[in-house]
Amino acid sequence: MDTHIRKVYIPMTETGFYILFCLRETIHGYGIIQKVEALTQGEIKLSPGTMYGSLSKMEKDGLIRFVREEDKRKFYCITELGNLVLKMEMKRIERLYRTMKEAHENEK
Amino acid sequence: MKNNKIKFRFFTIPQWRQEEQFLRREHNNGWKFTQLNALICYHFEKCEPEDVVYQLDYNPDGRTHKAEYVQIFRDCGWEYLQDYAGYSYFRKPAFKMDGNEEIFSDNSSKLDFMRRVFKGRILPLISIFLCIIIPQMLFQLHLKNIYGRIFAGIFAGLGVLYLILFLQFTIQFLKYRKTQK
Fold first, then answer.
1. For A74, which residue in chain B has the nearest alpha carbon?
2. B63 and B143 in one domain?
3. Which chain B residues contact residue A71 at CB under 8 A?
4. Domain span at residue B85?
5. How many beta-carbon pairs under 8 angstroms link A with B?
6. Domains present along chain A, CATH in parentheses
7. Residue B83 falls within a domain, yes or no?
8. Which of A60, A93, B98, B178 is the most buried (most CB within 10 A)?
9. pLDDT band at B141 (very low <50, low <70, confident <90, very high)
10. Residues B12/B76/B98/B29 CA torsion (nearest 10 deg)
11. Do B14 and B72 sit in the same domain of this protein?
């Protein structure tokens, strides 16, 4: 993994993480917006400018790839590199959560 | 009673916020934005006063894939209006939003937006500044006659305008970056 990818995507923004997480299956931009809203009980609403910008940036960096187009909506899915980045992020977040829990328990 | 009006307004490259607020204010006063033409004339038509949020994006990739780009905004309830000087104009009525909705939902993507503006609009200006304005100013000053001084003065004035623009842009960029941390 080159330094550019590391610098830009590790750690990842919450938006970036959810987008990549949803792209484990083939889905279009607006589909991701709806899915993230459902997953977070309406807590996180991604905006179209953010979504379009993130998708073209991730495609350019090879984290996701274009699959097909239907009714003017572009479908994407994650690549091997994207999966690698996602796994690293999931590990990082797990560690973060574990550390927080343990420290919190010890304080009680 | 006139049903159309034209307003002349000039916004510099980093002033998209002011431009968005200007269009929103007009709509609130019952003037719906219809078109912006090459002479920076904003065209409006009379309408029911309504709170409508206007937003500008700058995305060269979106401009080349216009249909898909506009579709995702439409899916999210944003009406696409037009492009002008690389910027794309969108609007959405406030009653269709929950809370303060913007076309960018996080600071990181706002910074990306500014990076695109920098690459597309500011960088060419920096080249003009360094390759034309500064050398021309020095050259004219070197002529040591009255015309030389006049032209040097004009170029110096332009140079100052450019510097103000760069400064405005930098301040805006740093502001976004600060709120991200």
1. B68
2. no
3. 71
4. 4-96
5. 77
6. 3-107 (1.10.10.10)
7. yes
8. A93
9. confident
10. 50
11. yes
